[in-house]
Specification:
ABC transporter transmembrane region fold; Rossmann fold; 3 domains; 6-stranded mixed β-sheet; 4-stranded antiparallel β-sheet; elongated; AAA+_ATPase; ATP-binding; cell membrane; ABC transporter-like protein; transmembrane helix
């Protein structure tokens, strides 16, 4: 279903109605001025009537003040409508993106979504504001000016019949030329934002590898590409202005010449010629405004299409009908296959079948890219299985309400992500109403209390964006505390202790075993030391379950497991020394 972006103006219909009415007042007053001026010149100055000069001047002043009030009112109402319109639209976009699955986010890319929520919405905001002012003013001024000019002399109508088609042709040519350019500009702005975000997120890596020069060139290339495209569009627009001014001045000269002939022939008076010049100037200026506004339309249309694309995209992950809570934490993968791009020849997981009983402590071991994270990501429905079923407590996860499912699952991802705010606020993400004691208990179990207590502000210490003030290990422990305070029925730790030393990791595992006894725990790791004490270990290799058993059983029965063990803790480690 096509989303109509103008529906966001409905709540602000009073502003949308009042803005044109105020503009109508301003235009009417502007159209009165040349006629009043003609009266001052012909009847007052040339007629020697001081009373006419004074009374008409007062009328001109009153008209100017009323026009100013109308213009001010139009600007205020247009601003209220456009600003509220963009705020509502941006809010809906943000909520829509928040409900996207990882699949949709991967499809659009983060940089593109940021551009759509910011730059594209601003383009639409500007268009709405301009439409309620200039899109109303220009046509009214044009039509009113034509009527007033023709009422003075029919010959002015002939002049307009010649120049208006030329102006309309110019506007059409400009529209055709700049529309594809603005579409290209938005795509290049997406690319620039993506480069910028990558640089800001990876600034430490860039400095560590002395890649500043390379990244500056990459940003410079994207920036130059965008600039060149923008300059091309602006060059087109730059040609239009002078041509319009030349045409307007030429028309004024023709009006003056014809007016002089008519004055000599006693057909019209000097004041009427002056009024005619003013009306012709207003008409041509209105066309100039329209040409500039139509240059905005292509860019706004591109932005509207991009915003509409986001709003019309349906998430691949939809709510099920089962509102029951996860009670036991039993997990079963029934012949599960998965591909990120729905390509049957590019499966990340292939016919995986395994069952995890409620309360078990399970380890998933495998090399990078084996499919471990992809497998557990199917449990909270970050993605849906391409084939087969994922069951929690005997119910297909696709049948659960997302809120019911995810509220009972705690996930600690590979990348430790924290948010701006205090440490306590970040830990309370797992449980908003958690008491201070609960926060400290969760932090103590995650081995985070030891470093938090040493900080000047303790749990009220403010974190920078993404927790940049903390080390990798400190961030991981804070994220683990955030998951533990939730006391979920299923706890997934996705290589979340990679930055911890073995001693800290051992204490962490002991604390979790002691304090987290009510649910199922899945630990993903590349280090055998992280999973060797679990109830059962699944060895994942090339998207399949290659072996399963306890640590001792796998040492005896699995060649892949023995190879990993030898490389980390046995023969390979010794050889590496």
């Amino acid at each position: 279903m096509k989303v109509k972006l103008m529906r966001y103006l409905k709540p602000y219909a009073p502003y949308v109605i009042l803005a044109p009415l105020m503009m109508l007042l301003e235009v009417f007053m502007d159209l009165m001025q040349p006629a009043l001026m003609a009266t001052v010149v012909d009847d007052g100055i040339l007629g020697g009537d001081m009373n006419t000069i004074i009374t008409t001047s007062v009328k001109m002043l009153g008209a100017a003040l009323l026009g100013m009030a109308g213009g001010f009112g139009c600007t205020v109402f247009a601003m209220l409508a456009s600003m509220n319109y963009s705020a509502d639209l941006r809010g809906d976009l943000f909520r829509k993106v928040g409900h996207f699955s990882f699949k949709e986010i991967d499809r659009f890319s983060t940089g593109s979504l940021v551009t759509r929520l910011t730059n594209d919405v601003v383009q639409l905001q500007n268009l709405v504001g301009m439409a309620l002012r200039m899109f109303i003013r220009a046509p009214l001024l044009c039509v009113g000016g034509v009527v007033m000019a023709v009422s003075i002399s029919v010959r002015y109508g002939v002049i307009l019949l010649v120049c208006i088609p030329v102006i309309l042709l110019m506007v059409l040519v400009v529209y055709k030329l700049v529309f594809p350019v603005f579409a290209s500009m938005q795509a290049k702005l997406d690319k620039l934002n993506a480069v910028l975000q990558e640089n800001l997120a990876g600034v430490r890596v860039i400095k560590a590898y002395v890649r500043g020069g390379f990244e500056e060139k990459r940003f410079g290339d994207a920036n130059e590409d965008l600039t060149n495209t923008a300059l091309y569009a602006m060059n087109i627009m730059a040609v239009v202005g002078p041509i319009m001014m030349l045409l307007m001045n030429a028309v004024v000269l023709v009006v003056i010449y014809m007016g002089g002939l008519q004055i000599q022939a006693k057909e019209i008076q000097v004041g009427e010629v002056m009024a005619g010049i003013s009306y012709m100037t207003q008409i041509l200026f209105s066309f100039m405004m329209m040409s500039m506004m139509f240059a905005m339309v292509p860019r706004a249309k591109v932005s509207a299409d991009r915003v509409r694309e986001v709003l019309q995209t349906e998430s691949a992950i939809t709510d099920g009908e089962v509102t029951a809570e996860v009670e036991r934490g039993e997990i079963e993968f029934d012949n599960v296959s998965f591909s990120y791009n729905d390509d049957k020849d590019d499966y990340v997981l292939k016919n995986v079948s395994l069952k995890i009983n409620a309360g078990e402590n399970i380890g998933l071991l495998g090399s990078t890219g084996a499919g471990k994270s992809s497998l557990v990501g199917l449990i909270p429905r970050f993605y849906d299985a391409t084939g087969g079923r994922v069951l929690v407590d005997g119910v297909d996860v696709r049948d659960y309400k997302l809120q019911s499912l995810r509220s009972n699952i705690g996930v600690v991802l590979q990348e430790a992500v924290l948010f701006s705010g205090t440490l306590a606020e970040n830990i309370r993400w797992g449980k908003e109403d958690a008491s201070d004691d609960e926060v400290k208990q969760a932090a103590a179990a995650a081995q985070a209390d030891e470093y938090i207590s040493e900080m000047t502000d303790g749990y009220e210490a403010m974190l920078g964006q993404k927790g940049l003030t903390l080390s990798g290990g400190q961030k991981q422990r804070a994220c683990i505390a955030r998951a533990l305070i939730k006391q979920p029925k299923i706890l997934i730790m996705d290589d979340s202790t990679s930055a911890l030393d073995l001693g800290t990791e051992s204490r962490l595992n002991a604390a979790i075993r002691e304090g987290y006894t009510s649910g199922t725990r899945i630990t993903i790791a590349q280090r055998i030391a992280s999973v060797m004490d679990t109830d059962r270990i699944y060895v994942i290799h090339d998207g399949e379950v290659a072996a399963v058993g306890t640590h001792d059983e796998l040492l005896e029965n699995s060649e892949i497991y023995r190879d990993i063990y030898d490389s980390q803790m046995g023969l390979g480690a010794v050889a590496g020394e």
